[in-house]
Write a sequence for this structure.
């Protein structure tokens, strides 16, 4: 009797699974499907998504280990690795999704901004793909995709304030629509990820469309601290190493001057901070009688002080952006939102600092999970879904498209923000772990 009952229950569960599988298959067949492809820097990503935001299949190849060995991102190396892996990555995403190329409604690909040689690989592959299968093509702005990722996870309505911080970018913008942004502030030199990370690759185009590059690699804080020699940091990026070591450091042991304190705008600058940290490292090396390349005894304290200064700078610029938007009536009175995305947004110390700002100003802070903050094909596919829904930026497979290594986001109103000259009220950026 008992055995029969158990068997019946098992059969019912199997029957339900079959029904759900058939329903899911019918939804795949009826829902519009987008293939997203990302190759803007050092990640080769692809994902297939339906218009509800369901990820049907994805694949990602990271170049991090290779670039750690070479001391930084070298464009020609990144290009070669993208070329070697893009076919496999796209094939894996398609196979995992369980659909065929004929079922796709469109292909969305990052075309700006980013490393020219990396963008070129993704664009060439995508254009060949859409021509072969006669599919619509959707060019994607990388920063727009970062800004909209949160809408894949929860219903965030426009307008909302967005802070994008990564290894190559830092900006503040008001998102008024899927392709409607007001740029409030941007980095004037280095991005925070560049400053905290191991090295920074600076490239200048010397040929048509930047197809040839002269690459200059300059040392950054993590490399200057020789963190790759630290037993806890040998297999992680410079930014991750700074965050890890800062947990056991005393930020008050080193007092770094926050950047741009006398500039009442929302722009960012990190080069001056890097110089301050470098000078402190040189001073400590002399005091401890060690040569460059030796791990300092105070490395945790330097990491903590630097991380706090970066977080403070980001928080203050964000605070001013919030006050500016409120003064101009740019944010809704009901449930105004700050969205934070990009690789550096994974830093928990920076998130906690921003939480103090949003709690003080009455904003709701939203941060996508870390896996969606870094570059990936999912965010590109979702941006394609958003554009497909509204019928914006959809091209025929026969149209020509160029990549753009440098591309602003939205309408630049940074001068208007500067003219407003908003002074910040005192705010204690302190919290307990």
């Amino acid at each position: 009797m008992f055995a029969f009952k158990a068997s019946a229950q098992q059969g019912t569960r199997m029957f339900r699974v079959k029904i759900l599988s058939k329903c899911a298959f019918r939804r795949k067949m009826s829902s519009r499907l987008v293939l997203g492809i990302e190759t803007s820097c050092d990640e080769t990503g692809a994902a297939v998504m339906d218009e509800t935001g369901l990820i049907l299949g994805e694949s990602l190849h990271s170049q991090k280990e290779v670039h750690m060995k070479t001391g930084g991102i070298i464009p020609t190396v990144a290009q070669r690795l993208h070329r070697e892996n893009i076919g496999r990555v796209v094939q894996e995403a398609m196979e995992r999704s369980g659909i065929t190329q004929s079922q796709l409604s469109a292909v969305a690909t990052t075309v700006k901004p980013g490393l020219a040689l990396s963008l070129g690989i993704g664009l060439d592959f995508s254009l060949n793909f859409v021509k072969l299968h006669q599919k619509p093509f959707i060019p994607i702005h990388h920063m727009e995709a970062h800004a909209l990722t949160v809408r894949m996870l929860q219903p965030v309505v426009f307008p909302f304030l967005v802070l994008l911080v990564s290894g190559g970018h830092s900006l503040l913008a008001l998102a008024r629509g899927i392709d409607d942004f007001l740029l409030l502030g941007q980095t004037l030199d280095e991005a925070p990820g560049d400053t905290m990370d191991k090295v920074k690759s600076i490239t200048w185009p010397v040929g048509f469309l930047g197809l040839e590059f002269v690459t200059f690699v300059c040392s950054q804080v993590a490399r200057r601290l020789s963190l790759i020699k630290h037993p806890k940091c040998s297999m992680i990026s410079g930014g991750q190493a700074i965050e890890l070591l800062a947990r056991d450091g005393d930020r008050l042991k080193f007092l770094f001057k926050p950047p741009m304190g006398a500039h009442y705008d929302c722009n960012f600058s990190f080069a001056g901070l890097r110089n301050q940290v470098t000078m402190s490292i040189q001073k400590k090396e002399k005091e401890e009688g060690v040569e460059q390349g030796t791990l300092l005894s105070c490395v945790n304290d330097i990491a903590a002080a630097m991380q706090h200064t970066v977080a403070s700078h980001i928080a203050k610029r964000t605070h001013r952006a919030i006050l500016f938007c409120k003064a101009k009536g740019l944010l809704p009175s009901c449930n105004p939102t700050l969205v934070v995305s990009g690789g550096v947004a994974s830093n928990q110390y920076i998130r906690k600092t921003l939480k103090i700002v949003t709690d003080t100003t009455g904003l709701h802070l939203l941060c996508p999970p870390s896996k969606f903050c870094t570059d990936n094909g999912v965010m590109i596919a979702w941006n394609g879904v958003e554009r497909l829904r509204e019928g914006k930026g959809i091209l025929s497979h026969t149209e020509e498209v160029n990549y753009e290594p440098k591309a602003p986001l939205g309408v630049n109103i940074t001068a208007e923000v500067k003219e407003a000259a908003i002074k910040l009220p005192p705010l204690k950026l302190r919290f307990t772990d």
